């Protein structure tokens, strides 16, 4: 079994925590808070390789005297569920020993777990508890969408945000991969103490096309309203089919707030081959964001919505229009105060994440992003298209049949869902032959129903 290890890095959010040598929980010690992130990489033809990154502050641990010194220990558990059933489970221990109380700081202990998994929609849950006080615990739940990667076009793995990347031949290190020591940043916070953003991703199928010997890798950072504040291009040769892409961005000049880091692979004519993006945060001491990072706040203030701008909150609610009621839409339209909008959006997702047809905001917005990747055309954003709406509302289809343009019929697709209402289909037809697929028929009781869809919309009139 692989030995669990960890690395101490500078923590961005400084906490004021008192330590108790007896191991009793001092009332001034803040609750245990864990940070969790993940990145998906190509595994093989049937599975995707996933890296789970986790971390917590050294100063949030309870310590007791041990034969080797003064020891703290956090117990972790990870569960991956699909439709409520556990597909994968693992438990591990992160110990930490110091020689004296003067060593305790607000540094972070960061670790990594990895696993392979087949395509599907999952929920990834990570929980942690203090070994010396079981009441000190925390948990994080994230959506995990796994799709089958294409073999005939370029694409990028997820972006791993890091605190450092350096050359290494230490293959025993937990963070070693591809001759590099890649230390993740599961908090996705930068700023005070971390003025440089490091990133790691892998570009696949670079040699699929033979029309050029190189591609252009464009990295950019956009603020909360979508304005690019940093952009950089570099030429990358197509030497290998899969190629690691790493780099740094100095973000010391940026202000506190939410930002989007994006990587795009294009040709010399700016044709996009592949792209991916990741949200991150910048925090600088004394900034207005400080209050949202301290304990004792309301659930809304502790959520990601509390640091969103009004433009971003409006956009996120617009994304949710497919599952929002007319009353919810009307309530939102009447709001003019940013905090009121943030609260409504938080409460909206709190309701949607429970019940028979529960879906988390993470899972829903992951679908929105994937719909944009899959269905965007020169005429419409992917999430606004008919295929995008169905994908976002009902998830990934179980089966798909594609029919290309012929002398007799226009292009069309038939999506099948086996577990909705005993089995339903959705039929999309591209009547103009320009990639604009529109929903023309479905057996879902709440969708458009047209038995003669083929004769009316797919069949070409001669």
Determine the CATH superfamily of the largest domain.
Immunoglobulins
Number of strands: 24
The percent range for helix content is 10-25%
Distance between the termini: 67 Å
CATH architecture of the largest domain: Sandwich
CATH topology label of the largest domain: Immunoglobulin-like
How much strand? 35-45%
Average the pLDDT over all residues and give the rounded result.
85
Mind describing the biggest β-sheet?
Answer: 6 strands, antiparallel
Number of helices: 7
Low-confidence stretches: 1-27, 289-298
Structural class by helix and strand composition: mainly beta
Walk me through the structure:
The protein is mainly beta and 462 residues long. The protein has 4 domains: 146 residues, Immunoglobulin-like, CATH 2.60.40.10; 144 residues, Immunoglobulin-like; 60 residues, no CATH class; 97 residues, no CATH class. It is 15% helix and 41% strand. The strands form 5 sheets. Strands 10, 11, 12, 13, 15 and 18 form a 6-stranded antiparallel beta sheet that branches. Strands 4, 5, 6, 8 and 9 form a 5-stranded antiparallel beta sheet that branches. A hairpin with a 5-residue loop joins strand 16 and strand 17. The longest helix is centred in the C-terminal third of the chain and has 15 residues. 27% of the residues are buried. The N terminus is likely disordered.
